[in-house]
Protein of uncharacterized function, DUF600
Amino acid sequence: MLTDDQAIYQEIGKLLWSIMPPNALKVIYIGMFYDDAKQAGAHWISKDNQEENFYSGFDNPIEHLEDSINTLLEQLQKCVIFKNEPWTHCHISLSDSGKFNIRFTYVSKDDSWPNLFMRGVSDLTEDEAENVYYVPRKIWAERVRLKKLT
């Protein structure tokens, strides 16, 4: 008998497998999940090691699937296994050979930023904050300062 978290992992794996393109090495799903906000989505790596997207302009052909995965991940956050170690960010990969991997981390909402997954603003270098994630220097400096206090 599978535990709740194992059943959820299995269902997420099935959903990701269902969208695996024929020329993909792996499908990746990343997301951040807070009580009042979330951001998540899938992309894939081709056999020639190029990052590819499922989206076409404003059209998202896998939106229903992403909604299902988001619901499963929100259920996963509530599983007993995570009671003492909550998480807010996850990174899931499924390879073309069927290998499933999921990583979690906790990033406080105060240290999060749009399109910044598995790390907080305070974990960025000044250059990354400014040139990759477009975090205003003042915000980055304040988050770094606050992290040093803890």
